[in-house]
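Q: Sequence in, structure out?
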Amino acid sequence: QVQLVESGGGLVQPGGSLRLSCAASGRTFSRYAMGWFRQPPGKERELVASITWNGGNTYYADSVKGRFTISRDNAKNTVYLQMNSLKPEDTAVYYCKARNGDYVYWGQGTQVTVSS
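A: Exactly. Output:
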Protein backbone atom coordinates (compact mmCIF):
# COMPACT_ATOMS: atom_id res chain seq x y z
CA GLN A 1 0.00 0.00 0.00
CA VAL A 2 1.27 3.46 -0.94
CA GLN A 3 -0.32 6.71 0.16
CA LEU A 4 0.44 9.85 -1.79
CA VAL A 5 0.01 13.43 -0.58
CA GLU A 6 0.47 16.34 -2.96
CA SER A 7 1.35 19.86 -1.88
CA GLY A 8 2.61 23.12 -3.33
CA GLY A 9 -0.37 24.21 -5.37
CA GLY A 10 -1.83 27.68 -5.25
CA LEU A 11 -2.58 30.85 -7.15
CA VAL A 12 0.17 32.27 -9.35
CA GLN A 13 0.34 34.96 -12.02
CA PRO A 14 1.08 34.08 -15.64
CA GLY A 15 4.81 33.66 -16.11
CA GLY A 16 5.29 32.61 -12.52
CA SER A 17 6.57 29.37 -11.02
CA LEU A 18 5.40 26.73 -8.61
CA ARG A 19 6.95 23.55 -7.29
CA LEU A 20 4.65 20.67 -6.53
CA SER A 21 5.66 17.87 -4.19
CA CYS A 22 4.20 14.41 -3.79
CA ALA A 23 5.20 12.62 -0.61
CA ALA A 24 4.74 8.87 -0.50
CA SER A 25 4.37 6.56 2.45
CA GLY A 26 5.86 3.10 2.55
CA ARG A 27 9.29 1.61 2.14
CA THR A 28 8.93 0.60 -1.50
CA PHE A 29 8.65 4.03 -3.11
CA SER A 30 11.79 3.48 -5.16
CA ARG A 31 10.13 0.56 -6.96
CA TYR A 32 7.40 2.75 -8.42
CA ALA A 33 7.33 4.75 -11.59
CA MET A 34 5.77 8.12 -10.82
CA GLY A 35 3.67 10.48 -12.85
CA TRP A 36 2.02 13.87 -12.60
CA PHE A 37 -1.40 14.26 -14.17
CA ARG A 38 -3.74 17.22 -14.32
CA GLN A 39 -7.43 17.74 -14.82
CA PRO A 40 -8.54 21.16 -16.04
CA PRO A 41 -12.09 22.26 -15.27
CA GLY A 42 -14.56 20.32 -17.40
CA LYS A 43 -11.88 18.28 -19.12
CA GLU A 44 -10.36 14.82 -18.95
CA ARG A 45 -7.39 14.01 -16.76
CA GLU A 46 -4.16 14.08 -18.76
CA LEU A 47 -0.58 12.99 -18.26
CA VAL A 48 1.81 15.88 -17.73
CA ALA A 49 5.11 14.17 -16.92
CA SER A 50 6.45 10.85 -15.71
CA ILE A 51 9.69 9.44 -14.34
CA THR A 52 11.03 5.91 -14.01
CA TRP A 53 11.84 4.29 -10.68
CA ASN A 54 15.47 5.43 -10.72
CA GLY A 55 14.94 8.73 -12.48
CA GLY A 56 16.76 7.50 -15.54
CA ASN A 57 14.00 8.32 -17.97
CA THR A 58 11.42 11.08 -18.08
CA TYR A 59 8.50 11.95 -20.30
CA TYR A 60 6.74 15.26 -20.85
CA ALA A 61 3.57 16.21 -22.63
CA ASP A 62 4.24 18.54 -25.53
CA SER A 63 2.29 21.30 -23.82
CA VAL A 64 4.77 21.49 -20.93
CA LYS A 65 8.11 20.59 -22.55
CA GLY A 66 10.78 23.12 -21.72
CA ARG A 67 8.70 24.61 -18.88
CA PHE A 68 8.12 21.75 -16.42
CA THR A 69 10.67 19.43 -14.84
CA ILE A 70 9.90 16.20 -12.99
CA SER A 71 12.37 14.79 -10.50
CA ARG A 72 12.42 12.41 -7.56
CA ASP A 73 14.32 11.84 -4.35
CA ASN A 74 13.97 8.21 -3.35
CA ALA A 75 15.67 8.85 -0.02
CA LYS A 76 12.85 11.28 0.82
CA ASN A 77 10.07 9.26 -0.84
CA THR A 78 9.14 12.35 -2.81
CA VAL A 79 8.56 13.29 -6.42
CA TYR A 80 8.55 16.89 -7.59
CA LEU A 81 7.18 18.91 -10.46
CA GLN A 82 8.90 22.23 -11.05
CA MET A 83 6.63 24.40 -13.14
CA ASN A 84 8.01 27.55 -14.76
CA SER A 85 6.57 30.08 -17.20
CA LEU A 86 3.08 29.13 -16.12
CA LYS A 87 0.17 29.92 -18.40
CA PRO A 88 -3.56 30.27 -17.67
CA GLU A 89 -4.11 27.00 -19.53
CA ASP A 90 -2.02 25.22 -16.89
CA THR A 91 -4.86 25.81 -14.43
CA ALA A 92 -5.99 22.41 -13.17
CA VAL A 93 -6.04 20.02 -10.26
CA TYR A 94 -2.69 18.23 -10.31
CA TYR A 95 -2.44 14.62 -9.19
CA CYS A 96 0.48 12.32 -8.66
CA LYS A 97 0.33 8.65 -9.50
CA ALA A 98 2.50 5.72 -8.48
CA ARG A 99 2.64 2.58 -10.59
CA ASN A 100 4.40 -0.75 -10.24
CA GLY A 101 2.91 -3.34 -12.53
CA ASP A 102 -0.75 -3.76 -11.61
CA TYR A 103 -0.38 -1.68 -8.48
CA VAL A 104 -1.56 1.88 -9.05
CA TYR A 105 -2.09 4.61 -6.45
CA TRP A 106 -3.30 8.20 -6.73
CA GLY A 107 -2.99 11.23 -4.54
CA GLN A 108 -5.89 13.50 -3.64
CA GLY A 109 -4.75 16.34 -5.89
CA THR A 110 -3.65 19.93 -5.43
CA GLN A 111 -5.18 22.95 -7.18
CA VAL A 112 -3.02 25.14 -9.40
CA THR A 113 -4.58 28.36 -10.64
CA VAL A 114 -2.75 30.63 -13.06
CA SER A 115 -4.44 33.99 -13.26
CA SER A 116 -3.70 37.68 -13.11
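The chain has a mean pLDDT of 96.
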